[in-house]
Automatic annotation (TrEMBL):
The keyword Mitochondrion does not apply. Keywords: DNA-binding, Transcription, Transcription regulation. Signal peptide: none annotated. Residues 1-58 form the HTH lysR-type domain. Coiled coil: none annotated. This is LysR family transcriptional regulator. It comes from the Bacteria. It comes from Maritimibacter dapengensis. Belongs to the LysR transcriptional regulatory family. The keyword DNA-binding applies.
Amino acid sequence: MDWDDLRIFLAVARGESLSAAGRVLKLDPATVGRRISKLEEATGAPLFARSPQGYGLTDAGARLLVHAEDAEQAVTRGTEALAGTTGGLSGQVRIGAPDGCANFLLPRVCAHIAREHPEIELQIVALPRIINLSKREADLAIAVSPPTTGRLTVQKITDYTLHLAATEEYLASHPPIEGPEDLRAHPVVGYIPDMIFDKELDYLSEIGADKVTLGSNSVSVQLGFLREGGGIGIAHDFALPFAPNLRKVLADRISLTRTFYLVRHAGDARIERMSRVAEMVLGGLKAEVARLEALT
């Protein structure tokens, strides 16, 4: 079994279809299918269960996946070792993050890393859901809940705070808010309830708000609703400097604390480039949250 066979196997396992794997590998799907069939003949076991929904790993395929990922990491480490170390970083690193972090924190952090290391290629994937590292949707992921399964390493980055916020104009033209019970008389901005992908994002149920008048699965859109005077809602403190017309409401009564975690593949800790980028992202995010929260 050679690395090229494993490379094709990994692409199908992650893409769950021949066409998705073909796009990654720049091969015709029929060629990918022939290579998978040949690999299954060589191993003497079916590696995928074929269905109209795609290619799912069998038990044998799941066992091979662990070793294929180890081989992938070994190839990467070997490539970097042969390239030598010059102090600068190069290559592509994809960072997955919830859109609040992706929009308000990561751009400054990544821009700083890119200035220090001009050969690096940094990509930010902003998705309103949990990033799937096992399918290599990203090399690093920022999460608001630490994952409990998978061959992953998890590091706490930093805590961050959130408060109710609204515009001065909105507050001046609507009934006064003296306590959480007064929120019932106001339009509330927040997540679409059935699209909350992590329990840590269910802010409104925590403060007793039972109806979302203006909803979105995007933090950036929610902030836009608030900036336009659409109502009152929970906002990240680190996002408030980007919306100077907002002010905190009931700050002494309602204050939420959440945590960012850095998640990556366990084997990537042995790859120098990935470890150095992870260290810079972790330190940069911690400093950026502190900087922006100090402005509010």
